[in-house]
Amino acid sequence: MPAPCRIWRSCGLAVLAHARHFYERMLRPTPHPRKSSRVSFAVPTLFRFVVFLALLGGLVLGGMVALVTFVQPVPREMVEIVPPAKLLPK
Predict the structure, then answer these.
(1) Is 17 strand, coil or helix?
(2) Which helix (H) or strand (E) holds 51?
(3) Number of H helices, E strands in the chain
(4) Pairwise CA distance, residues 6 & 63, whole Å
(5) CA dihedral 3, 7, 13, 15 (to 10 degrees)
(6) What span, in angstroms and rounded, lies between the C-alpha atoms of 4 and 23?
(7) Rounded Cα gap, residues 53 and 46, in angstroms
(8) Fewer CB within 10 A of the end CB, N or C, for the chain?
(9) How confident is the model at residue 2, as a pLDDT?
(10) What DSSP element (H or E) covers 39?
(11) Which H/E stretch holds residue 79?
């Protein structure tokens, strides 16, 4: 049986395979070597926070790109009334 990454790549989802690999190797909680009741992470908290912010920023950027790509503005006529007092020279 091929490795899970190969199955994912054959489906054209290489990015998801890499994200899954990253999660399994770096972010998944692992048991503490000395105390079985404690759980430790292989990655420092700051690095996880920065990765979270990068993913959140990527989602926001993706949403903005989607809006620019798929939403077409509707041109309309705009009328603004200017008071005559502003048209007279001082």
Answers:
(1) helix
(2) helix 45-70
(3) 4, 2
(4) 30
(5) 0
(6) 14
(7) 11
(8) C
(9) 47
(10) strand 39-40
(11) none
